Amino acid sequence: MIFNSLVFLVFVLCFFSVYFFLKGRLRLGWILVASYVFYGWWDWRFLALIIFTTLMDYLFGIYLEDTHAPRQKKQVIIASVVMNLGFLSIFKYFNFFAASAAAALQYVGMEASWTTLHIILPVGISFYTFQSMSYTIEIYRGEMKAERDLLKYATFVGFWPQLMAGPIVRAKDLLPQFHVERPFEWDRFYSGMGRVLWGFFKKCAIADSLGPFADQCFQAPETFGSLHLLIGVVFYSFQIYCDFSGYSDIAIGMARIMGYRFPENFRSPYFSSSFSEFWTRWHISLSSWLRDYLYIPLGGNRHGVFMTYRNNMITMLLGGLWHGANWAFVFWGFLHGLYLILQRFVAPRWAWVVRALRLPLFVDKGVAIAVVYSLTLLAWVYFRAGSMGAHSFTTANAVLSGIFSGRHFAWWAVVNKFQVLKGFLLIGLLYGVELSNAWVNWNVVQVHRPALRLAAFAVLLWLIAFFGTFGANAFIYFQF
Amino acid sequence: MKQLGWFLLLLGTVLAGDRAGGYVLQQQVAQSQFRYARLYGGEAAADILLVGNSRGLIFYEPYIEEKSGLKTFNLSYNGLPMDAARALAEDYLDSYPAPRLMLIELTTCDRTNDALLAGFLTFSGQSARLDALIREKSVENWRTGQLSALYRYNNELFQRALFHRKKTDKDWLLDREIDPDLAAKVLENNYPLEVHPYLLEQLQALVAYAQKKGVAVKLVISPYFPQFMVTHLDDLKAEATRLTGLPVYDYRDKLSDPALFGDFMHLNKAGAVEYLNLLRADGVLP
Lengths: 480, 286
What we know:
The structure holds 2 protein chains of 2 kinds. By secondary structure, chain A is mainly alpha-helical. Chain A is 71% helix and 0% strand.
């Protein structure tokens, strides 16, 4: 089930018409049933997988807490990680690794005839697997206690607002919230509604309006001029941002209406003036997960320059692979790893230039933001092409060579100019709102100023009607 | 109670604003020089009615009018399918004196385009035919259009109407030369034309309707880029002739200079002029 569909509207109405009349375990039970309906709507057969993962990690958690021998603890946590990553590997990466190994053997002159399996990727598996793993790892580290109540634990894993595409909420952040009764509050309702509407605007009006133009560029890059392709890539950068952050906004808003608090997943990432800042603003729940459970355990920046670079690169490569079974995603991760390393060289020198030339802050920041955005854009080309199967690198290279060729870098050579104008208008609106966050606390406005709230909600609804695309387009991150 | 009042006020504001916005946008469309705004605004009377998809835009009106001294009106639009073309053309025939000639680009019967149909919500208030067609082919869009007046203007047709608010669209034509690199790959490219019985039936009905009104109808196939492969074109031609009883004037390979094309499927302005000269020489156009 996807948020931008009529079925979801019916689901939400049914869910909330019962939810606030229930209390305690009945309410949790209702959330769990609704979550399984929400997930099973896509393919009920995979409910067995999520239930099995839930049960196993629930038992692993209790066993980890009850066991005091370090050796046994280690065995249990390894079993949990192997199980979780095992499912992920089978469903998401089996064919990829089989094909890659066969290609590697062929390269050295050996024939391999492994068959690939027809495996359906369960939606959201990457998200709930990481969420579930964080639970057992945190118990192993002694950072939280095991949840003895299976209902609470199952609700944590299957919680429908974030089940399909995050944010990846840590067990220590969400599980304690299930221990406290969450009565209905109008403030939370208004605040959540505002967030949901903003999310729908980002998804339906911005992401789905920019998507067709970007898709066209990647489907036949050779038929378009340089400016057209550049606009296509810029549009893709905003499509993926608004698609994913729109989903997160809806998830955060829905949870807020229900009385739960999710961490922020995006903070205006294209205003980042460094790559390390970018990763504190983009898909925050994943980047912080990778930092805490991969980068820091690898040694982080504690063992010298070379090891820091190595750890950076490993983290980003695996972060790339997390997104999908294609080398283009890995290459996207590689580029970001490289950017993080290069930044350590370039940043001090740029700071020296700024001091020497006494450049004002807005120039310093402006240049940094432009450079970070441009390089991010370059990496997005490989990321977008990553979903194009075997032709990913050919497509990405064709798009980039088209852009850098400068051929037909002219407005007249841009096709679908009306889509372009609409796209930039919407991006302008997005930037306007994001910039306004520096002066206006929209959450406070929604909660405490009924007249302004009414105006904001009405304007959002009008904008969605006037600019929205309502084809029930799935969210991009569902495929990850 | 206070909260209920707030919700009712929100609902009222949203609905009132939506309707008011829709009214303002409709006024903008009514003042536009865009073809469909002129069609439904009573400003489209012509001697020659031109019908087609993007390839119908090749019927370059200023040149035809200059050479023939007759008034033209072009209903063509990018991706326009024959069912929508039929609704528009029949609306024209009901609203204006019968033109001398209706020239139809046959490849308008190529494929359906329900996504484009939703764009005609902007004009569905003025056309029972468009309204019924959208309701039949794109019911979700039709329903959304009933719910929200603003949604009826959420499309490219409205944007074009705004763009042509103060300037005519009679000279709308792709005017560029095909990229030589792309032209060199002509043999690697092809266009799989679809022969749709439904769209051919729409053509048949339109031809019959026009002939009943005393309009001469001619079917043409405009030129394609030299050596560009279009499959099933002969099947389409044969079916059209069988259903309408009309011959098809086939110009698919009549122009061989690559400089006359904007891409594989469309002539540029220079090509359009050459093509229109051929149509005049053969008596297809007066």
